[in-house]
Structure to design on (342 residues):
């Protein structure tokens, strides 16, 4: 009979071929009982901590808790609700519309993004507690907030607004035009592909079957599906070519991709370049910095050297030794994947 490996269980059979239960002594039974008692105490504490309190439950806006605001202040700081919204602190739709137009016309480029983001979040909160989701004003705020968040590379705000807009699209909203619906569906497809969210990608593809044909065959959707296919195949070189083309000739590709797709690709450009560099360092023995700069689509070789230095990749004499760099690149790609937002 071969010797069992370390940690491998062995099954002992009687002469009749029936498995015999293992024998447990009294001390082992006591240890198991004490361990079970400890876990019961931990579970009870966890349930108490995870159960929503009255303040947390009151933050969720439901039809029974909707209010009609009476506040007339245009500028309002965003504060997280810890109790039911008060009527005197919530702005009605007419005031929200004026405040939003003021942000668009006067304050967009005069104030920092932190201030603009806080004002938009306060507007969204006032709409939420009044049950205005799905209205024209609500969708205008969410779409504008998503585009501004991309310009400011605020991925968290972009995800929140993108989810709100696509939720209305998939529920059959007729407020948004076909171009806007195709724009945000394209953002959803490309974002889930660049993040590597497989379930979200499958969900997006299934939902595309139920949307109108005019939107499904839109140029934005076709281009987004092509980018998703390249990301799934690991063809990061083509994605970087699209990124470079959008950066250098935005008007030429304006009818093929949404206006803020360049900003979305800009957020993920470092991740895409690291993944492509991982493939290059695995395939070659040595690579010149000039060659890497062309593959990774940097504007200049100086930008490529800065990228290599930032990621601790030695490039003495304008040459990198791929075997020395591959392990470091793989670790950094894994670290980026662990920090994914979504």
């Amino acid at each position: 009979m071969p010797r069992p490996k370390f940690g491998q269980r062995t099954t002992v059979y009687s002469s009749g071929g029936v498995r015999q239960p293992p024998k447990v002594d009294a001390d082992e039974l006591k240890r198991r009982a004490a361990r079970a008692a400890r876990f019961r105490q931990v579970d009870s504490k966890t349930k108490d901590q995870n159960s929503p309190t009255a303040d947390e439950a009151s933050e969720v806006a439901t039809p029974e808790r909707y209010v009609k605001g009476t506040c007339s202040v245009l500028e309002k700081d965003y504060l997280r609700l810890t109790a039911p919204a008060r009527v005197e602190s919530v702005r009605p739709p007419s005031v929200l519309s004026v405040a939003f137009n003021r942000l668009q016309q006067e304050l967009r480029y005069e104030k920092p993004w932190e201030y603009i983001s806080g004002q938009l979040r306060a507007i969204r909160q006032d709409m939420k507690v009044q049950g205005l989701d799905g209205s024209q004003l609500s969708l205008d705020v969410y779409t504008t907030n998503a585009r501004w968040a991309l310009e400011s590379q605020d991925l968290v705000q972009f995800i929140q607004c993108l989810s709100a807009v696509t939720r209305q699209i998939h529920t059959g909203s007729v407020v948004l035009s076909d171009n806007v619906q195709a724009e945000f569906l394209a953002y959803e497809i490309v974002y889930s592909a660049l993040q590597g969210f497989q379930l979200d990608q499958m969900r997006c593809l299934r939902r595309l079957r139920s949307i109108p044909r005019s939107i499904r065959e839109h140029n934005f959707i076709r281009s987004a599906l092509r980018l998703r296919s390249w990301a799934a195949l690991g063809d990061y070189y083509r994605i970087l070519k699209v990124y470079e083309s959008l950066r250098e000739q935005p008007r030429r590709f304006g009818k093929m991709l949404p206006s803020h797709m360049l900003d979305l690709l800009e957020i993920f450009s470092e991740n895409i370049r690291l993944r492509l560099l991982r493939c290059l360092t695995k395939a070659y023995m040595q690579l010149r910095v000039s060659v890497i700069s062309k593959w990774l689509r940097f504007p200049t070789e100086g930008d490529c050297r800065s990228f290599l230095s930032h990621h601790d990749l030695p490039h003495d004499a304008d040459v990198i030794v791929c075997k020395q760099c591959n392990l470091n690149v793989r670790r950094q790609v894994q670290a980026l994947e662990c920090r994914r937002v979504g």
User: Anything to note?
Assistant: The first helix runs from residue 26 to 50. The beta strands are 286-288, 319-321. The chain has a mean pLDDT of 84. The chain is about 60% helix and 0% strand.
